[in-house]
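U., I forgot to send this yesterday:
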Amino acid sequence: MKIFKEIAILKTFLDEIKGAGNSIGLVPTMGALHKGHISLIEASRAQNAFTLTTIYVNPAQFNNPLDLQKYPRTLERDLKILEESGCDAVFCPSDQEMYEEQPLLKFDFGHLDKVMEGKFRPGHFSGVALVVGKLFNIVGPTIAYFGQKDWQQVTVIRRMVDELKFNLLVLSVPIVRDTDGLAMSSRNLRLTQEERVQAAVLYRALSMAKESLKSGQGLEFVRMEVKALVEGQPAMKLEYFELADSQNLTPLSNVKDGGRPIMCIAAFAGDVRLIDNMFLD
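Result:
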């Protein structure tokens, strides 16, 4: 597995890969890798001749400086995981390499970045779009892979790709869950043992909400059910539970409105913020 830290050297190398007619799969990550990330790499390897993973904790997408400071960084472990997974190369640049100057460019995705995550993390998706756009320009991938757990991020990135006419496909890979249902997340590393046990309530809440909504219960009643279940765990605090059209993130008041509905949830386990989602079909 090749390791790159400089953009110019990486681009020269990838030009040779593309020149030979090979497809390139890109898996952007912020490190602290887990089985969810490995599923993205496996999907890329199955569909492309060459797979590149990036590891970069992007400061532009953190609206909370403390969250950035505490974000787990496990580069040595991550590189070992990537090599064992069969990844062909990894790009792990420094902040100086990615941002030579303080960025001025801002993205506005209309309602897409004003609801759910965008509502509670202002500026987050502008930072995401900035770094992902940079990576698309640097790598020029055939297909880029993202996890379903960050569904709103997938939707925003797909809109950016469409509007800026990037010549690539964005694929979402299903959520990988632990045995108790908790969605795999790099932030899980920050949970205490007690918080980790209690955090599994998010999956139970989504499963309960799915059954309730499909049986005809109203959204507000289900939202109260979710809040009661989640906050029945001492360490847990619900931030939001929303029902939305998965294609355009338009909030839905019931399961019959809009396109394919998705339930999205965010909550704190102690001071660690976790998100999850589940389709209703």
